[in-house]
Amino acid sequence: MPIAHVCVTCGAHLPGGSPPPALCPICDEPRQYVPLDGQRWLSYADLAASHANRIEEVEVDLWGVGVEPTFAIGQRALLVRTEEGNLLWDCVPLLTPGAIARLEELGGVRAVAVSHPHFYTGAARFAAAFGAEVILHDADCRHVTEPGPHLRFWTGETLSPFGDLTLVRAGGHFAGGTVLHWPAGAGGRGELLTGDIVRVIPDRSHVAFLYSYPNLIPLPGREVERIAAAVARFRYDRIHDGWWGRVIEEGAEAVMERSVARYVRALAGRLDGVQLPWPAS
């Protein structure tokens, strides 16, 4: 593939061969940010020279794919292995020859599905390496920075890419914000893979939801309730968000329910039985 321009802040790829824009189109909007010291671009070759992929087993049939040292947003993708083929959930900015070989050993990549535009990053490169399609919700199509024939846009509320996997449009962070339901995960108890449409908080007692994480912009309560409603018909005991180690190991449905209730209470001026120091609207 042509050498890409890679945004240092978010990891977005823009096609090479011409100067990049003055500002990254992914960063230059309220959910992301352009740093105080200005927009910085890195060539893909320079990124590959200074970073490597980290690939390791997370649980049975689930493998993490990340970048080290940490780059841009620092997310890791997840390779879900199934009898019908492997799905790469979310994406990272780098794919090295060694990583291609390791992923081929694990069965390759039949398709890439991405939760939201901040994680589109190197999806075109993964698609080219494995002959895979990239599955994105059509509501976010205007945010694609590397268009091409590898893209498949879907509409509606759910899509089954293959096997028993289901993509669920949850909304929230982005209009097309998507989570993946994997019923075989957690030893058959079911899992949600959520990127940062749903974030796992540090003590693992709750999950969180925001319109913008770096800029700390909340979502309206009705949108958080919509996320919960979108996944309510699916059974899941575990949640993996978009970063290494951020996992609700068990009881995830109950965690989701109480997290949504806490969020809505907080917006109304109440939090865990304590009256917050501002009036309800």
List keywords for this structure.
281 residues; 26% strand; 20 strands; 7-stranded mixed beta sheet
The CATH homologous superfamily is called Ribonuclease Z/Hydroxyacylglutathione hydrolase-like
Q: How confident is the prediction overall: mean pLDDT?
A: 95
Taken together, the total number of domains comes to 1
- The CATH class turns out to be Alpha Beta
Verbal overview:
The chain has 281 residues and is of the alpha+beta class. The protein has one domain: Ribonuclease Z/Hydroxyacylglutathione hydrolase-like (Metallo-beta-lactamase, Chain A, 4-Layer Sandwich), CATH 3.60.15. The chain is 20% helix and 26% strand. The protein contains 6 helices and 20 strands. The chain has helices at residues 44-50, 97-105, 123-130, 185-188, 221-231, 252-267; strands at 5-7, 13-14, 41-43, 52-59, 62-68, 77-82, 85-89, 111-113, 133-137, 151-154, 158-159, 166-169, 178-182, 191-193, 199-200, 207-208, 238-240, 247-248, 270-271, 274-275. The strands form 5 sheets. The chain has a 7-stranded mixed beta sheet with strand order 4-5-6-7-8-9-10. It has a 6-stranded mixed beta sheet with strand order 11-12-13-14-17-18, with helices on one face. Helix 5 packs antiparallel against helix 6 (252-267). The radius of gyration is 19 Å and the shape is globular. The chain starts with a strand and ends in a 6-residue tail after the last strand.
